[in-house]
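PROTEIN DESIGN WORKSHEET
SECTION A - STRUCTURE
LENGTH: 69
TOKENS:
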């Protein structure tokens, strides 16, 4: 019975989410502007983090299919 009451409490909590404060929201301009090179490096790293692992998996898909379990 304690498991049921705990699950019911979690569901009740999920139904009424708390309001987030605006601590990180700012209407001021940024202190330091990012250069085009910094933005390009950040974008390249972001794409690399997602595309390199998925490309590896797709390139070796036939090996994964023929692998004995």
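SECTION B - SEQUENCE
RESIDUE ASSIGNMENT:
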């Amino acid at each position: 019975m304690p498991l049921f009451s705990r699950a019911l409490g979690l569901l009740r909590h999920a139904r009424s989410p708390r309001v987030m404060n605006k601590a990180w929201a700012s209407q001021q301009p940024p202190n330091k502007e990012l250069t085009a090179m910094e933005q390009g490096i950040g974008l390249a790293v972001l794409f690399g983090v997602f595309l390199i692992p998925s490309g590896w998996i797709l390139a070796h898909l036939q090996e994964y299919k023929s692998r004995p379990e």
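SECTION C - NOTES
Residues 36-59 form the longest helix (24 residues).
The chain is about 60% helix and 0% strand.
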